[in-house]
TrEMBL record:
Location of 4-aspartylphosphate modifications: D56
Claim: Thylakoid is one of the keywords in the record: no
Phylogenetic lineage: Bacteria, Pseudomonadati, Pseudomonadota, Alphaproteobacteria, Caulobacterales
Domain OmpR/PhoB-type: 129-228
Keyword field contains Phosphoprotein: yes
Protein name (database record): DNA-binding response regulator
Source organism: Phenylobacterium parvum
Length: 228
């Protein structure tokens, strides 16, 4: 099973927010962080670095569009889906102009919201601005860099970046050696080479606190996977 995506749900309706958070988290696909107003929503976004934000337009301390603008100004690049009871064109355009990626009108069906969330996550993962959580790091594939909590940057080669991207998308499923060689280098199955092992060794030297222990990149099932 893939690692759950972190959703930040910002809505001042306590009953609706709590129920929706429970429903979204029920299948294990998503982990949900909750906030009841704009200020706490921005704070939660900076702390949790969510994969996607569900943002109500009508908040007690500010307008959701202003929250979206602040998130973008603070370099929160993940998708933002606005939730609103109004379905006017002006409302929708205002949210999109503020930096939102999509709009869902209340009341909505859970299955439709989940589908919109998945679509935005898929699109973002393929974008230049995608940012992933990898252990203590933020992984920024387009910049070929890992950034730790103190802001220290670990530069990656193109192959190292591609290895981490492929392992990340595989979730908790071990990726066989031959599959990685085929996807990252284009090698046919059965090719005898230590190229992959050498790159994984160098990656561990760069990013593991104990390279010999392999706590972030695990050797398993004739291949590799990332730790949850």
């Amino acid at each position: 099973m893939a690692q759950p995506k972190t959703l930040l749900l910002v809505d001042d309706n306590d009953d609706l927010r709590t129920e929706l958070a429970e429903l979204l988290a029920a299948g294990g696909e998503f982990a949900v962080v909750q906030a009841a107003d704009g200020a706490s929503g921005v704070k939660a976004a900076l702390e949790s670095r969510p994969d996607l934000v569900l943002l109500d337009v009508d908040l007690p301390d500010t307008n959701g569009r202003e929250v979206c603008r602040e998130l973008r100004a603070r370099q929160i690049a993940c998708p933002v889906i606005m939730l609103t009871a109004a379905d006017t064109e002006a409302e929708m355009v205002g949210g999109l102009d503020a930096g939102a990626n999509d709009y869902v009108t209340k009341p909505f069906r859970l299955a439709v919201l989940q589908a919109r969330i998945r679509a935005q996550l898929r699109s973002h993962e393929q974008s230049e601005g995608a940012v992933f959580r990898l252990g203590p790091y933020e992984f920024r594939p387009s910049a070929k860099v890992l950034v730790d909590g103190s802001g220290r940057k670990v530069r990656l080669t193109e192959k190292e970046t591609n290895i981490l991207k492929y392992l990340y998308r595989a979730g908790e499923k071990p990726v066989p050696r031959d599959e990685l060689l085929a996807e990252v280098w284009g090698y046919n199955a059965g090719v005898t080479t230590h190229t992959l092992e050498t790159h994984v060794y160098r990656l561990r030297q760069k990013i593991e606190s104990d390279p010999a222990g392999g706590r972030l990149i695990l050797t398993e099932g004739g291949g590799y996977r990332l730790a949850p």
